[in-house]
Queue: 2 jobs
Job 1
Amino acid sequence: MLDNSIKFVQGVGEARAKLLEKELGIVTMRDMLYHFPFRYIDRTRTYKVSEVTEDNASAYIQLRLRVVGKAFAGEGRKQRFTVYAADETGRVELIWFRGIKWIEKMIEPNRDYIVFGRPSFFRGEMSLIHPEIEVVEKALSRTKESGLQGIYSTTEKLTSSLGAKGLYNIICSLWGVVRGHIEEYMPEYISRKYALMPLSEALYNIHFPQSAEKLKQAQYRLKFDELFGIQLNIQARRSERTGRRDGFMFPKVGEKFNTFYHTKLPFSLTDGQKQAVRDIRQDTVSGIQMNRLLQGDVGSGKTVVALLSMLLAGDNGFQSCMMVPTEILARQHYASISKMCEGVPVRVAILTGTTKAKERREVLAALEAGEVDILVGTHALIEDRVRFSNLGLVIIDEQHRFGVEQRARLWTKNAQPPHILVMTATPIPRTLAMTLYGDLDVSVIKGLPPGRKPIKTYHYFESGRLSLQNFMRDQIRRGRQIYVVYPLILESEKMDYLSLQEGFDAIVRDFPLPHYRVAVCHGKMKAEDKQRAMEEFKSGQAHILVATSVIEVGVDVPNATVIVIESAERFGLAQLHQLRGRVGRGSEQSYCVLMSDEKLSKESSKRLEAMCQTSDGFELAELDLKLRGAGDINGTQQSGDAFDLKIANPTYDHQILQVAQAVAIALLDADSTLSHPSHLALRQLRDRYAPEHKTDFSEIS
Ligand code: ADP
Ligand code: MG
């Protein structure tokens, strides 16, 4: 029953079914049933007009209003019907563009109505567009269950086709159809032990809460199911991986590692780096394939940990590859690794999308012949024609930039799975990592190499532009270099290029030759030109590099001490923090200047404030989660939309997550294939959360 098309539900039909699919991805009755309200409003609570302000206006509210007048405007299809209403504290306009005849008939002046909708403000005046409206007597006579009504996420297109109440009505009809067809899959003994509400009752209460308490139980049950379903997959994979015992062995610390470590390494490792290397050494002699996430704030020195691991692989006769998200970064890593490895008996090669055909042929042949030890590259590495002779270690830098699919293709290149080290500077709270990346062990490099001064961060408005320029000149006089970054959310956005170009022109004007030299680097430039710009900056010829967020990840120019981020309000916290990490890499005091519009949303100003207050990436990541609020984690880059969570939030629901994980481990220990009669039904839950392409991190074959 639940697999039937939603179009058969009363009030839906072909056209709306199409729309539901397009707008919300809802196809079957199950999809609809699992389209949960994202919040609930208390319909027993009625607001006064004066209580509603622009700050709290994003919510749906209920008002009791007296109608004082009405007016039509426009003609034909462009009609608009306005009702002027008020309570003793203020006035509101109620506006309709459709269904005008019907509304007009029911509205009587000097009568009281209960109005429900989402307020919007224009020049301080409040209005409600297409609110629900009912005469007071009728509204009050209606028996209320709990007073809690679900609010469903919807889209503009859907709202205009279904009306404010439309989705709710569909859910009501749907419930009538499916109520007898919801099968419980949770084994009795688990439900009893963890006091889980029966599935059918939970689904009913999530849509139609009978009480606040029941709603809580329903939410608990459904969150549990999601996290449990994911854990059933993760833990099964984990025990499969660790049970296989076919990890490559790197027991030998040989010439490559030792020569580098004792004669080339230009500094001593921090404690965090040492620990990470120890973790990796331990993993690579365990006989089990390594699957490790290396987290470390921007500038914490992950690259050298990666290099040491690759040298270790080389000492044991294995090849390694390191995949990075951008061409620039690939070249930078290649250059610095080649340089650091001068005199070390190790062969390093690079492969990117722009590698010339002849060179590519040579690299590919050398790779297959086992003549290359370390290959650095972009996602060009995952192409089928790239074949290794014996790939033993895969390193993925700045992993949040890659899709699940891309990451996975790298380790299908061997019959026997290579060890995997994934590196990220985007800190992921532990519990989130546990859920989203599941079968990964985590090493964390805490702290930065010694001698770094904390970066000073300031927030300026346009009015501070002149003093910013003076400051920049002063820094250049002291021999320092400066990044100026423009937002580039989409590579295709014309506007962004315009502002970049204008910004570049302005900077060239303000910092003219011969005293100043300005380079520019953005995604639309040819690879060679980008490369040249980066070279000019790296070598110190250019004082200022104007760039888009191309430079966001990994670029290392220790002499750059200032980064100016234009339209900083348009960047997310994680991105701002990454960008800031471009400076503060040498021993000089570094600065980050956030330029923004005077008019800022509350959230943007909180973000910028947070940036000025702390430079701790982990603190910022936690804050970011809080600012974005629950439920939005799914939309973030780092979740990699690996799982389709509808109700659980791994960060907020970490207690449920821990229980779900423990239950999954115990259950799989006893019955790894879910073959016991009381577990058979659980397969549907497990399969619902199976990674779609079978290409999660840990998926190797
Ligand atoms: P990230 O973790 O952001 O990738 P990098 O690996 O690029 O950081 O390192 C940042 C800078 O710190 C580089 O210039 C690197 O040479 C330097 N570095 C790394 N480890 C140390 C250390 N233990 N002591 C001093 N400098 C270090
Ligand atoms: Mg890096």
Note: The longest strand covers residues 61-73.
Job 2
Amino acid sequence: MRGVIVINFGGQYAHLIARRIRDLGIYAEILPYIMAEKEQIEKLNPTAIILSGGPSSVYEPGAPSVGDWIFDLDIPILGICYGFQLIAKKLGGHIVKSRGEYGPTKVKILEKKGIFDGWDEEEIVWMSHSDHISKVPQELSVTALSENGYVAAFRHRKKEIYGVQFHPEVKHTPKGQILLKNFALSISKSERNWSTEAILSTILEELRREVKDCKSILSAVSGGIDSTVATVLVNKVAGDRLTSIFVNHGLLRKNEPEEVLKTLKEMSINPIYVDASDKFLSSLRGVTSCEEKRKIIGELFIKVFIEALEGKEFDCFVQGTLYPDIIESGREPGADRIKSHHNVAGLPEWLEAKVIEPLKFLYKDEVRRIAAELGLPKKLVERHPFPGPGLAVRVIGEVTEEKLRIVREASSIVEEVLREEGLYNEVWQAFAVVGDDKWVGVKGDARVDGYIVTVRIVESEDAMTAGWYRIPYHVLEKISKRITSIIPEVTMVTYSITTKPPSTIEPC
Ligand code: XMP
């Protein structure tokens, strides 16, 4: 499909650019800069190119770059942050370290047309840079200045080449989407070709090619939307070459194993069911490090699969990996690793099977739309995301039977109350967390050394950033009361009010 190519220089929010373009109904694809060869780009035949931000400085030796041929492609180019500085440097400009600009910044627009069509003379944008252009090359004309006097935007005098120092892709640049629309629709004349049906048919087409050589495919379903959709899709193209398996690792939510099996059955997926709770829980005994927990769970999953298959070999393995998982696991060249999400970075090295990830370029909301298109049950489509390592990442410190019981019950109460209050679908995720900290309480006439449960309810678009949900007090009170009255070991309930970043959504 023809669309916009985003050349990724490893910026945390680079993927958001593609997402915003897709929000305009235009296909957008991300290409790591090391794959951005001339032949590759010509083959993809994009309608426009966007050069993303990135953590490097353009003047560092070996800094990520692209060839100069990019300027001769005769399609519109937009550089954002690092991409903006890279264009300036390539055309002969100077980039130096500056005081830096972070967060909301005022800019003065000098030319209210082109990418700035629809912008006012003074606007707020989101900046995040510590280098600036100290000498603008001849071929470029400055179109915006920041309140600190730095070049905030430019355009090429003769070609359709633009650059912005700020991030139009983040919501904190209120008119960012207008800018991207101006660039992708008016300037580059891309077609509006990215619909749910189009996504689905592109994925199926790609999947057919990918599984062509697979003799036997294994899919591990968790009952969550990602692995279920991935399995249903592979089932469509691979038929009886696919075996699915559902492992209960003992770290699932309340009643989850029964519900998952029921839902899968309704969708004509009959997985091999393995209850390996004891194995997982004993392997986690004494383990307190988050990364270690993830690695143990990831490895054990594969061992359990192999055991359950009783000698039946598989050469392809399906994963419901989403695009944010890939970014956060540092699989994109240049990106820093944040957490090893077990379904990507935690796969053991000895696993030789080819990994099939049909959803790896999609965001959760796109997967939800596909799930609805495929006719999957509403309950599954709307279900909150749940991490592969399950409650193990919601227990801080060692995973004990007691803490697991507390977190399972408390999380179920959080979800239950939100459903009662009609708020469940308003939020991205809602759950409880427990650690080892205690709080003295009085229950009946006795003093109790009870656990502290933290309730975390977040709003997010794609889990890359998240805000804490401004929950009405009466709902919070209902949650708190129900937790302390139903779970005897809990004496204190707290509410998490930290955004991501600086925090992450899960505690571990
Ligand atoms: P964090 O905690 O990194 O989470 O802000 C972002 C999103 O990813 C989910 N998550 C995971 N999913 N394996 C998964 O499959 C994991 O190890 C994992 N850790 C976090 C999390 O629930 C949130 O939606």
Note: Residues 340-346 have pLDDT under 50 and may be disordered.
